[in-house]
Specification:
With about 200 residues, the protein is an alpha+beta fold. It has helices spanning about 1-25, 95-100, 115-120, 145-160, 165-185, 185-195, and strands spanning about 45-50, 55, 65, 75-80, 125-130, 135-140. A hairpin with a 2-residue loop joins strand 1 and strand 2.
């Protein structure tokens, strides 16, 4: 008798549990499908145009200068940051130039040495650091693939460059040698003195 009551109780619990689950699912509102909304950035704003060079400003403040030349089979991407040696504080001398060297070491998206990738694409490239700016440029064959690669690479290395201790040590020597050879050039010292920059 106890066994049949126990069996009945278990059966009743199972049925009521099943009924509760069914009722719970029927009382729930159907889930609305999630729609992924992709925000498209506003289009560039044309600022000015002078002698075939047009300046645009992006929503993030980036200035873009476009100078089409249909006679060329190449294009040039030149990215200029308005930061140079005059922005360095005491004990930071050479840091802008050092950073210029380090951003060629690659990123997680472009793990290969960026100089090697540019060479493999047949590019002419360099970076320079001055008193008030640092720039990077590459000249590549005018293909859509190369243009997309160059713009994406520049955007990626702007924020994701590998900065490793081993590279800091090796590049510091290179930067120091370049700095010392520049100090021996009279024109560098004259310009620096004239512009009020420290050398």
């Amino acid at each position: 008798m106890k066994q049949s009551i126990l069996s009945g109780l278990i059966l009743l619990l199972l049925v009521s549990s099943s009924y509760a689950q069914k009722k719970k699912t029927t009382n729930q509102k159907p889930e609305t499908p999630k729609v992924e909304v992709k925000m498209t950035p506003p289009p560039p704003v044309k600022v000015t145009s002078v002698e075939g060079i047009t300046e645009y400003r992006l929503a993030n403040g980036l200035r873009v200068l476009l100078f089409p030349d249909q006679s060329k089979q190449t294009f040039t991407v030149n990215v200029t940051y308005l930061v140079g040696s005059k922005h360095e504080n005491y004990g930071e001398t050479g840091m802008a130039h050092l950073l210029e060297h380090l951003v060629f070491k690659g990123t997680p998206k472009y793990p290969m040495n960026i100089m090697k990738e540019l060479e493999d694409r047949g590019g002419n490239f360099n970076g320079t650091t001055s008193f008030d700016r640092t720039n990077y440029f590459e000249v590549l064959s005018a293909t859509d693939e190369n243009m997309k690669w160059a713009l994406d690479m520049e955007a990626d290395r702007m924020v994701n460059s590998f900065i490793a201790k081993k590279d800091l040590e090796s590049e510091m020597t290179v930067v120091r040698n370049e700095f010392e050879s520049g100090e021996k050039q009279p024109d560098t010292r004259v310009v620096a003195t004239y512009d009020g920059y420290r050398v």
